[in-house]
Write a structure and sequence with these properties.
Blueprint (H helix, E strand, L loop, with lengths): L1 H11 L59 E3 L8 E7 L6 H10 L4 H7 L14 E3 L7 E3 H11 L13 E7 L5 E4 L2 E2 L8 E7 L2 E8 L6 H17 L9 E4 L4 H6 L8 H4 L5 E2 L1 H4 L5 E2 L1 E2 L1 H5 L5 E2 L8 E5 L3 E6 L7 E8 L5 E10 L6 E7 L11 E5 L3 E2 L4 E8 L8 E9 L2 E10 L1
């Protein structure tokens, strides 16, 4: 009892002495405090393992992946189903006879069939009756407007020897040395333009023609330009009034950006360093240009034909693309829906790429660049990193892209360059929203 009392007294009368007896009783010590047990500490959550990427494996199926190669589109215009080439030269042209031979022979063999037949043109004919040697000297310069009027005023004029062929005519005019071709006030040669083709109205009928200036002294340059323009004139003879095979499909907008919107069958291959074909490859007596084939591109072969004998084509293709919207208002167009990859500004995405070839070959290297082959870079800032830089048919690589700023079309162009043995091939792709 004392213990409890003293304790109670201490609790209730703190600081007062107890008066019963000669001495005071010391209070019992308080029980020791019991420390609380510490709360259990949760261990940090383990980060999930990074997904294992499927890098494929070498395959004997060629091509291992369906290639996302661009396809030229038919806009509804007619082609020259029975083309007749009329060669026009000016006095004093020391290459006149060679240029006439080019016109007489280019449309008869396999080369012409390779570059035009899938688009609906047949073999082209010419001959001595379709040679025009002008009597009056050429002026120091001629503009595209002047040349259009010149062709319109001479076609069908019986007095000056311009023939009216029974088939689908294409007149090709070779400007002589000393005559500059002027386009929009600038020299075509100085601007890197080796020729062009167009059409004019004669008695209410559209007539196709091509113009080739004399840029320098390299005759191969002239014949390259001539082959380019003649094949384009056959497959897209009236480009402004009734376009035929011109431009890539809307889902292939990446190829339009890559080509800087120069996209007829000749344009689509002219930027490649291996576009020239010498006589040993064609049997012709002249150097000519390889040109775009929808069929070859779709099948996984070289899109530029004729293909080099014995060569194996190789490239990579983007896999599992999205539908993206591209704003073309900054370049005079509308919003277009095309194929690409959705990546917001500030975001990062991993893009799968499939290596493919049309035959057995060893590995080749790849790199990713911003922009396209023809020069210039994407206007938006893009960081690019490949997880592997070498592979072969059936294998895969992954491209990590980070979009830092939006381009003027709200999209960014990226090109994958595949290289083997000094030869490079290209695959453009678009990043959009």
């Amino acid at each position: 009892m004392t213990k409890n009392y003293a304790l109670l007294g201490l609790l209730s009368l703190s600081g007062l002495a107890v008066a019963c007896g000669a001495t005071t009783e010391e209070p019992a010590p308080a029980p020791p405090a019991v420390a609380e047990a510490p709360a259990p500490v949760e261990p940090p959550a383990a980060e999930p393992p990074a997904p294992v990427l499927d890098h494929g494996a070498p395959s004997t199926k060629y091509p291992a992946f369906p290639p996302a190669m661009g396809q030229l589109k038919q806009n509804g215009g007619s082609v020259l189903k029975n083309p007749v080439i009329i060669t026009v030269t000016w006095p004093g042209d020391d290459k006149a006879a060679d240029l006439e031979t080019l016109g007489d022979t280019i449309g008869a063999g396999q080369y012409w069939k390779d570059v035009t037949s899938e688009y609906g043109a047949s073999a082209a004919i010419s001959g001595e009756a379709h040679h025009v040697r002008l009597a009056d000297a050429a002026p120091a310069s001629m503009s595209d407007t002047q040349l259009d009027a010149f062709v319109a005023s001479h076609v069908g004029a019986a007095t000056d020897g311009w023939p009216v062929p029974a088939g689908d005519a294409v007149y090709i005019l070779y400007l002589p040395k000393g005559t500059q071709l002027m386009l929009q006030g600038k020299s075509a040669c100085s601007s890197g333009v080796g020729g062009y083709h167009d059409s004019t109205k004669v008695n209410g009928k559209s007539t196709a023609y091509a113009i080739v200036p004399r840029c320098g002294t390299d005759f191969d340059h002239i014949t390259l330009s001539a082959s380019h323009e003649l094949a384009e004139a056959a497959t897209d003879p009236y480009p402004r009034s009734r376009p035929a095979w011109y431009g890539f499909r809307e889902e292939d907008l990446a190829w339009e950006f890559f080509q800087q919107f120069q996209s007829e069958n000749g344009d689509a291959c002219e930027f490649y360093r291996d576009s020239d074909l010498d006589p040993t490859e064609t049997g012709l007596a002249f150097t000519v240009q390889r040109q775009w084939s929808n069929a070859s591109a779709k099948a996984g072969h070289d899109p530029c034909v004729p293909a080099f004998k014995g060569a194996t084509y190789f490239n990579v293709t983007p896999l599992n693309m999205d539908d993206i919207d591209v704003d073309l208002s900054a370049i005079g167009g509308d919003t277009a829906t095309t194929k690409g990859f959705k990546v917001k500004v500030g975001a990062t995405r991993q893009i799968p790429l499939g290596f493919y070839s049309d035959g057995a070959m060893g590995p080749w290297t790849i790199k990713a660049i911003s922009g396209g082959i023809a020069g210039g870079r994407s206007s938006g800032g893009v960081d690019l990193e490949l997880d592997v830089t070498e592979g072969q048919n059936g294998q895969k690589a992954y491209l990590t892209v980070t979009v830092n700023t939006a381009g003027k079309t709200n999209s960014e162009l990226v090109t994958i360059v595949s290289t083997h043995g000094g030869v490079s091939h290209y695959m453009p792709l678009l990043l959009g929203r």
